[in-house]
Amino acid sequence: MKHSYDADIVAWAQEQARLLRAHRFDALDIEHIAEEIEDVGKSEQRELANRMAVLLAHLLKWQYQPERRGNSWAATIRHQRQRMARRLERTPSLQSCLIDAEWWADAWGDACSEAAEQTGMGFDAFPSDCPWTAAAILSAEFWPESVPQ
After folding, report:
1. Backbone phi, psi, residue 147, to 5°
2. How many CB atoms lie within 10 A of CB 115?
3. Which long-range contacts (CB under 8 A, 24 or more apart) does 59-62 make?
4. How sure is the predictor about 6, in pLDDT bands with cuts at 50, 70 and 90?
5. pLDDT tens across 67-124, in order?
6. For residue 128, what is the DSSP state?
7. Reported pTM
8. Are 59 and 138 in contact (CB under 8 A)?
9. What backbone torsions phi and psi does residue 8 show, to the nearest 5 degrees?
């Protein structure tokens, strides 16, 4: 039974796996398999970017609203750092994201949007580029100083 990639991707994926295990390479949907394999990598990059954006947003809140600092923000910062460290350890190729300017721009933009929404501050209240290094952001010892008012 041939399943359509566009009609039911789950059924299609199960069929492709079955065909691979049966060594029925002639029946495989090679083009879509290649797309899906590439998408796995993109998904990992998106997850890392989402985690980075959450971490950065909380670091911004920590820096710009010191009077509201609390255990919840600190826990989120620690949790995101730990999860990112594990992801980078398990998937070392994701380290390339940390030196990709476009990836950083997206993560920083998302972080500033989230921080602006959650703080009620305008998007322009935050720097246009991330002021911290990746090493600092991921370091358990790094906590940004308050912005002078």
Report:
1. -80, 130
2. 24
3. 59/132, 59/137, 59/144, 60/111, 60/112, 60/115, 60/119, 60/126, 60/144, 61/115, 61/118, 61/119, 62/143, 62/144
4. confident
5. 999 999 999 999 999 999 999 999 999 999 999 999 999 999 999 999 999 999 999 9
6. S
7. 0.84
8. no
9. -155, 90
